[in-house]
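Tokens as discussed.
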């Protein structure tokens, strides 16, 4: 059974678990989806469940909290969790992880500050020109296809766990996951501190039995103090409460997708560093000798591996004669995600892979070894475009009064007949239609008018909208920065 999952203020993994619980599905089978959507977005995605009637899944819509709200972010609070299911239909194929051609984003930028407007200038026209220029630049030149910071976890340390696992240091990996983290709830911080101090009065080099006993007692004592979403920590503590000091077993108790996440974070860390070096040394517009270019990339339908893995992909190292013939463009250039089956670029970019791994105490052979240690998280590698050009770029510039009113009509708002009342000042569609935008609910623009922008674009799988937005706004997209911005007035007045 294939269906659409609509969610607000909840990530895909947690939403999937909630659907399983509310619809009373088999937890071992769960529901299948093609990709992860994070908590901060209002998202829709195709999912599937094996041999199920839609009536059983419709129970989710009845049980879901806040069923009467239209959503859309019209709140001055933290937002409500909303899960809705619809568009049911039977299919002979399940939805598989990675089996997607891309993602469509429609993103709201609120309280846009363009700086001082020259005397005598129309602020509306200045805003329109600046935003149009920024949108067209992103469409024409694209952006460096970095992995976003969410790839490295809330505390930006998942790649450190990956390094420890690559080195076979499971105790070190467990310690990084369990160590104290900043800005957590006091109960969780205290639990982490207890864990860090579990061997405080024991010489573990001389008394292994006492160390086991202390770890077992500590693990059992802090189990209930760990938060709902601390799945990795809870798996580790549960394992060590039964088999203390067996850190390899404890790490293996973490769900497969989470174990893989740590290693993928290290691949991403290497990729981001090498990508920066490649742009700094070779520029962002021209192909260089030693670059790798993707010369074959079969779709899943034609025998390829879809959006992940090496199946159906082939690369070539650029030579002098390729430059003479102008055979390739910068959008053909790829960098590898380190693994046992990929080819590395030539020149200084290839050298940097070796240098970074050496600094971390790792070599290329370790990527083959990890598959022998745990076949479920084997790292063959992959290739990723250096430059990403968004498709179907569109934008609308909005004027509004209420700092938290919806500027974009979500699917749930459409179903419930809730309209957007903000004024559209200009739209990229005007260029296509050569007709002025019709402003519904047009309002007088004065000093308390707030300007916003709804920007839309499509990205290939595994490309990050946060990175595209960073290029568009020239501002950080981290939650730490975004949480300090104001929805009206000087948006950056809290930024030091």
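Sequence:
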């Amino acid at each position: 059974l294939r269906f659409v999952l609509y969610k607000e203020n909840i990530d895909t993994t947690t939403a999937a678990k909630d659907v399983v619980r509310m619809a009373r599905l088999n937890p071992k089978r769960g529901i299948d989806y093609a990709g992860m959507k994070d908590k901060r977005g209002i998202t829709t995605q195709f999912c599937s469940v094996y041999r199920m009637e839609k009536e059983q899944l419709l129970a989710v819509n009845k049980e879901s909290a806040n069923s009467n709200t239209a959503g859309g972010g019209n709140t001055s609070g933290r937002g409500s969790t909303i899960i809705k299911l619809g568009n049911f239909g039977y299919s002979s194929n399940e939805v598989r992880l990675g089996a997607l051609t891309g993602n469509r984003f429609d993103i709201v930028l609120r309280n846009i500050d363009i700086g001082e407007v020259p005397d005598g200038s129309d602020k509306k026209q200045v805003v329109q020109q600046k935003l149009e220029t920024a949108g067209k630049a992103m469409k024409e030149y694209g952006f460096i296809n970095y992995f976003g910071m969410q790839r490295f976890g809330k505390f930006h340390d998942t790649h450190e766990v990956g390094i420890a696992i690559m080195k076979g240091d499971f105790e070190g990996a467990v310690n990084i996951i369990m160590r104290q983290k900043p800005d957590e709830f006091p109960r969780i911080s205290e639990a982490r501190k207890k864990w860090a101090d579990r061997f405080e009065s024991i010489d573990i080099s001389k008394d292994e039995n006492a160390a086991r006993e202390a770890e077992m007692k500590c693990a059992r004592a802090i189990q209930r103090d760990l938060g709902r979403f601390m799945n990795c920590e809870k798996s580790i503590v549960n394992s060590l409460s039964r088999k203390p000091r067996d850190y390899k077993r404890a790490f293996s108790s973490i769900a497969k997708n989470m174990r893989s996440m740590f290693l993928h974070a290290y691949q991403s860390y290497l990729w981001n560093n090498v990508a920066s070096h490649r742009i700094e040394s070779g520029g962002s517009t021209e192909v260089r000798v030693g670059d790798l270019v993707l010369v074959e990339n079969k779709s899943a339908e034609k025998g390829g591996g879809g959006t992940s893995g090496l199946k159906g992909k082939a690369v070539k190292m650029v030579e002098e004669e390729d430059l003479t013939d102008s055979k390739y463009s910068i959008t053909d250039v790829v960098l590898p995600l380190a693994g046992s089956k990929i080819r590395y670029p030539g020149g200084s970019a290839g050298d940097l892979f070796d240098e970074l791994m050496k600094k971390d105490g790792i070599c290329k052979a370790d990527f083959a070894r990890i598959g022998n240690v745990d076949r479920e998280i084997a790292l063959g590698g992959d290739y990723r475009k250096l430059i990403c050009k968004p498709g179907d770029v569109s934008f609308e510039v909005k004027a509004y009064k209420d700092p938290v009113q919806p500027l974009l009509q979500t699917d749930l708002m459409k179903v419930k007949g809730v309209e957007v009342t903000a004024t559209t000042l200009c739209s990229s569609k005007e260029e296509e239609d050569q007709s002025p935008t019709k402003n519904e609910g047009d309002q007088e623009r004065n000093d308390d008018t707030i300007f916003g922008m709804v920007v839309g674009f499509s990205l290939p799988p595994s490309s990050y909208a946060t990175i595209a937005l960073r290029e568009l706004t020239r501002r950080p997209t981290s939650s730490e920065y975004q949480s300090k911005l104001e929805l009206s007035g000087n948006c950056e007045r809290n930024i030091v």
